[in-house]
Specification:
Layout (H helix, E strand, L loop, with lengths): L1 H25 L5 H20 L31
Protein name: Major facilitator superfamily (MFS) profile domain-containing protein
Keywords: Membrane, Transmembrane, Transmembrane helix
Length: 82
């Protein structure tokens, strides 16, 4: 998961200034175009957060479906140090 996050940040973060410049030139220098670009990014982030599962207190070693739907950790998902 971290590799995907880092790759996305390099690709999207690297092209954002170019995209912003292109949008401003396309709109004839209007600042509303940058606001639309930022709002679109915020909507994508909000949608991603809405569909992502909650992982608070969930064991990273737990099998898929081991945790309850409300995010509570089931006894089967808890690992104890030896």
């Amino acid at each position: 998961m971290s590799i995907g996050y880092q790759a996305g940040s390099v690709v999207l973060g690297g092209f954002t200034p170019t995209l912003a410049t292109s949008v401003v030139l396309w709109s004839g220098g209007a600042s509303w175009s940058l606001m639309v670009l930022v709002a679109a990014g915020a909507l994508i982030a909000a949608a991603t957060m809405a569909v992502a599962p909650e992982t608070f207190r969930r064991s990273l070693d737990a099998e898929a479906g081991a945790a309850a739907r409300d995010g509570a950790v089931s006894p089967a998902a808890v690992t104890t140090p030896h």
